[in-house]
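Reading a protein record of the kind used here takes only a little practice. Think of the row as the fold of the chain written in a discrete alphabet. With that in mind, consider the following protein and its fold in token form:
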Amino acid sequence: MWTSLVLTFDDELTITELTTVDAERVDISGDFAEVVARSFDWMRQTHEQKASALVWTRDAFEKFRSSDNKELSVAKAVAAGSAIALRSEE
């Protein structure tokens, strides 16, 4: 199980869109690395502006949600390989 968060930014780094990976357009079967690769391909094809995504395992996301220190929670998840940050630019 996994979850995602996709943010799109304008040139001033203002968030212009907040969404998730579209499970109707991205095959979400397979292991975490396969899902991340397909999610990144979808993000690059779908978002012409600068976009960043954080793809999490469900467990890592639940820890993030309940954490008081969100930045530390993200850092721990990325370091553990249970969350992957992606970035797409024009």
